[in-house]
Amino acid sequence: MTNDPPEGSASPDPSSQPGGHEPPSPVTEPAPEPGYQQPSGYGQATGYEQAQYYEAPPGPPNVSPPTEGYLPPAGYGYGEHGSAVAAGMYLDAQSGLTLPQGVQLASIGRRIGAYFLAIPLFIVTLGIGYIIWGLIAWANGQTPALQVLGMRCWRPDDNRIAGWWWMALREIIGRFVEGILGIITGLISFILMCTRPDRRSIHDLIAGTVVLHDPNKVLASRTT
After folding, report:
1. Cβ atoms 49, 41 nearer than 8 A
2. Which of 104, 112, 133, 211 has an alpha carbon 20 to 30 Å from 199's alpha carbon atom?
3. Rounded CA gap, 178 and 206, in Å?
4. Is the dihedral of CA 180, 182, 186, 189 positive or negative?
């Protein structure tokens, strides 16, 4: 038999009975004040948490520039045969040849000027004087017209001025081959000189020479 409370009576208050507890009241957050904004980054992962999932890619290596006067080791890719550029020389970007400092490839206009200058020089010296002058000038890698216009013949394979025998090969055998078919081979030689990056004509190809403009005569000490 249970002791039920009589009908119509109020339920007893649990807090008034021994061992009774009052149930907790719900917690309510205060309403934000007008104009209030959440701080930047609120609710986002912290920098430490982001670092666990993302790593920045490595930057470029910090390479210091070479010091002045530094020359790359042999085989690095400089020079005609993969060797380092020697002191007093430079790599000509147009032709890819290693040339002495202070000179440059003779321009097309200067080469044409030397060709036409040879005609009046031959006439003025009565022919024989031009031949004697040329035999002397060959030892310095020049012809009379090249000498007047400040040019010399250079052999890149030897890195030196073309000597007397190389000039004889250029001016005798080379000119002979250049004139075999008359104006045809002469025109071919002219086109080669105008289009090749090293400006070599047929007689230059036969003797392995290039023509350099040497206005300050820096190559005078290299003659043989």
Report:
1. no
2. 133
3. 10
4. negative
pLDDT (average), residues 188-202: 96
Number of domains in the chain: 1
Sequence-distant (≥ 6) Cβ neighbours of residue 115 within 8 angstroms? 145
Residue-number span of the structural domain to which 192 is assigned: 104-216
Task: Say if residue 72's pLDDT is above 60.
Answer: no
Q: Say if residues 129 and 160 touch (Cβ distance below 8 Å).
A: no
Residue 9 has pLDDT above 80, yes or no: no
Q: Please give the structure tokens belonging to residue 102.
A: 């202070």
Give the separation between CA 87 and CA 53, rounded to whole angstroms: 54
The reported pTM is: 0.62
Kindly tell me if the per-residue pLDDT of 20 is higher than 60: no
Q: Which two tokens stand for residue 97?
A: 């040849």
Of the candidates 98, 95, 101, the one whose C-alpha atom is nearest the C-alpha of residue 82 is: 98
- Is-contact 124 117, C-beta < 8 A? no
Q: DSSP character for 174?
A: I
Would you state the structure tokens that stand for residue 126, as one six-digit string?
A: 């009565």
Compute the C-alpha angle 191/173/222, nearest 5°.
85
Does residue 152 lie in a domain region? yes
Contact between residue 144 and residue 133 where contact means Cβ atoms under 8 Å apart: yes
Look at residue 25 and tell me if it is in a domain.
no
